[in-house]
């Protein structure tokens, strides 16, 4: 965990462009945006990926899911948005601290 990039952002040891935070989650701009709006939502506790979730995380995951449309609305994405969670090496995950990509705007690439 001590070498986890996103834990360092949570700790304030690495700067990030933070758009929202509370006691459970942190939301910041992706450093290499793939769309007009490209945010990352992370839990403040270190969870490696979706594959490490268990029932003790039920409330946290529900909380994160419900926050996503709220954040999209705040970003002006009233006509829709995309969420992506890459899981594991073969899923394209590069940072091994669970995160949801929130993408939207005019430059949203095809999928
Ligand atoms: P993933 O491939 O799903 O693990 O996505 C990791 C994401 O983290 C990529 O979209 C990167 O551009 C982004 N990223 C890496 N380093 C930083 C950073 N220091 N601040 C913000 N975003 C970052
Ligand atoms: Zn971490």
Can you characterise this structure?
- By secondary structure, this protein is of the alpha+beta class.
- The protein has a single domain (5-104), classed as HIT family, subunit A, CATH 3.30.428.
- The chain has 2 helices and 5 strands; from the N terminus they run αβββαββ.
- It has helices spanning 5-11, 58-74, and strands spanning 18-21, 25-29, 37-43, 82-84, 100-104.
- It has a 5-stranded antiparallel sheet, with helices on one face.
- The N and C termini lie far apart (32 Å).
- 21% of the residues are buried.
- The model has no long low-confidence stretch (mean pLDDT 96).
- The structure holds adenosine monophosphate and zinc ion (ZN).
- Residues 5, 14, 16, 30-32, 40, 86, 92-95 line the site of adenosine monophosphate.
Radius of gyration: 14 Å
- What percent of residues adopt helix (DSSP H or I)? 10-25%
The whole-number mean of residue pLDDT values reads 96
Low-confidence stretches: none
Query: Would you state the CATH class?
Result: Alpha Beta
Q: Number of DSSP strands? A: 5
**Bound compounds, please?**
adenosine monophosphate, zinc ion
| The named CATH superfamily | HIT-like
CA-CA gap between termini: 32 Å
Shape: globular
Query: Helix count, per DSSP?
Result: 2
Q: Strand portion, in percent? A: 15-25%
N-to-C series of helices and strands: HEEEHEE
Q: What summary fits the major beta sheet?
A: 5 strands, antiparallel
Structural class: alpha+beta
CATH topology: HIT family, subunit A
Side by side, the strands of the main sheet go 1-2-3-5-4
- CATH architecture type: 2-Layer Sandwich
- What number of domains? 1
């Amino acid at each position: 965990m001590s070498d986890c990039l996103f834990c360092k952002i949570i700790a304030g040891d690495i700067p990030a462009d933070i758009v929202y935070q509370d006691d459970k989650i942190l939301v910041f701009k992706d450093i290499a945006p793939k769309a007009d709006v490209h945010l990352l939502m992370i839990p403040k506790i270190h969870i490696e990926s979706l594959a490490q979730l268990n029932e003790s995380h039920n409330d946290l995951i529900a909380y994160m899911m419900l926050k996503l449309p709220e954040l999209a609305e705040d970003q002006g994405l009233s006509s829709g948005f995309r969420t992506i969670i890459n899981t594991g090496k073969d899923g394209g995950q590069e940072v091994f601290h669970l995160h949801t990509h929130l993408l939207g705007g005019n430059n949203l690439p095809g999928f």
